[in-house]
Design a protein that fits this description.
- By secondary structure, the protein is mainly α.
- 77% of the residues lie in helices and 0% in strands.
- The protein has one domain (3-178, 241-405): Na+/H+ antiporter like fold.
- It has helices at 3-27, 39-63, 69-72, 74-97, 101-112, 118-128, 138-183, 185-194, 197-211, 214-217, 224-237, 241-244, 247-260, 262-268, 276-286, 289-300, 312-339, 347-355, 364-372, 376-405.
- The longest helix is centred in the middle third of the chain and has 46 residues, at 138-183.
- It is a multi-pass membrane protein.
- GO terms for molecular function: transmembrane transporter activity.
Length: 406
């Protein structure tokens, strides 16, 4: 298949995403207001609690088996590498552009976390259903592609709501604390001048000792178990465990259980399974998630049309990191993994591993920016430009990936 044919195959799915996104943007306009600030949360909740879990569980249960897990173990590692490499590139970008402290966590989040669920769930089936797709039979390609994309979505959710959540929370807290310290510096120094020295030290040390176990604060020897428990407790306090174990993640666990345990699989999966109606109903319900995700994506981008104080250099840097450096590095990592036998010869699986490096930032970054009140308008502007340019970059990278794998 020629390069031009591959370009057409790659362009059609991205255009579909772009068109549905534009519809969502149109529906969110104030004059239309079908996906405005009132309706959007309801649709978001339907996707979060119903459509996505149904899609993830049905796709994983139908395609993942105990034997196939041996070839899928590299995907969580690959996704983790996208987060780590993106964070390193973001740190370099922050130093070059001298990004303001209150936006540094946002920059790291946008560079490290890609849209590992929504876009793959839309793009992969569309590529498979093209008549001249390089991945073989459309039914088999779509089935396995959706399973790979669902696994990517589940693993990505765990990383986003642990790794990125903690980073953005730390930067937001530090920025808020620095602002507070500047505003109360004069009154704080005046108060300290009135306090005796013993009371000053007790005030400064209270927060430190409050976080430590009693034995550590008393200077006694701490056992390994006590220190481990304290570290786990501190990690849990800084992690949004409710989002880590989101409905889609729990649904992925159920999908794995159903798919990998043979007796359960025979009862639910297959044309002759007694409870096949459960799987078919979940699959039917899950199909609604794909267009709804694209509509929500478009409605969320509306905020990015408003002005923001973020510098052009920061936006350009994030776009270059996500659309140029990460995809190039990803090619080296996936090809090396295949060379050393860490990844099998399945071209569709390698294609998805490569795509994970070329995706625009995850929409969950915007949720975190709203949650921490750090760079909300700036995040909308970044998302707008990243997704507009991703329409072109994803087409080019998808074309190149298919040519490379072919």
């Amino acid at each position: 298949m020629g390069f031009l044919d591959l370009f057409v195959v790659a362009m059609v799915p991205v255009l579909k995403v772009l068109l549905i996104t534009l519809v969502g943007l149109f529906l969110a306009l104030d004059r239309i207001d079908l996906l405005g600030s009132t309706a959007r949360p309801y649709l978001n909740n339907l996707i979060f609690y119903v459509f996505s879990p149904a899609l993830v569980s049905s796709q994983l249960a139908g395609t993942i088996t105990l034997q196939s897990l041996a070839s899928l173990w590299f995907m969580p590692v690959n996704i983790l590498l996208t987060f780590i490499i993106g964070s390193v590139l973001a740190w370099i970008l922050i130093k070059i552009t001298r990004t303001p402290p209150h936006l540094q966590g946002l920059v790291i989040g946008c560079c490290s976390a890609g849209n590992l669920g929504n876009l793959l769930l839309i793009i992969v089936p569309a590529v498979c259903n093209e008549s001249n797709s390089p991945f073989g039979d459309s039914t088999v390609c779509s089935s396995y592609g959706m399973a790979y994309a669902s696994l990517s979505m589940a693993v990505g959710a765990i990383y986003i709501w642990t790794y990125v959540y903690i980073i953005m929370r730390i930067y937001a807290d530090n920025s808020a604390e620095n602002t507070k310290n500047v505003s109360i510096a004069d009154s704080e120094s005046y108060t300290e001048a009135l306090l005796p020295s013993s009371e000053k030290s007790s005030c400064h040390d209270h927060s430190v000792h409050a976080e430590l176990p009693e034995t550590m604060s008393e200077g006694k020897k701490v056992t390994f178990m006590e220190r481990t428990f304290w570290n786990f407790k501190k990690f849990a306090a800084n992690t949004n465990l409710k989002k880590v174990f989101a409905p889609a993640t729990i649904a992925a666990m159920f999908g794995f259980v159903i798919g990998t345990i043979s007796p359960i699989r025979k009862v639910i999966i297959g044309d002759s399974a007694p409870l096949r109606v459960l799987e078919s109903s979940a699959s039917l319900l899950g199909q609604a998630s794909i267009p709804c995700m694209a509509l929500i994506m478009g409605s969320n981008l509306l905020k990015g049309l408003r002005r923001s104080e973020i510098s052009v250099s920061v936006i350009a840097g994030i776009v270059v990191v996500r659309n140029f450096f990460l995809p190039l590095i990803g090619i080296g990592i996936v090809k090396a993994a295949h060379h050393f036998g860490l990844v099998g010869s399945d071209s569709l699986y390698q294609f998805i591993l490569l795509l994970q490096y070329a995706l625009p930032p995850a929409m969950a970054i915007g949720v975190m920016a709203q949650l921490f009140k750090a760079g909300e308008s700036e995040c909308s502007v970044i998302m707008l430009w990243c997704y507009v340019l991703a329409a072109f970059s994803l087409t080019l990278w998808s074309t190149f990936y298919m040519w490379l794998l072919g």
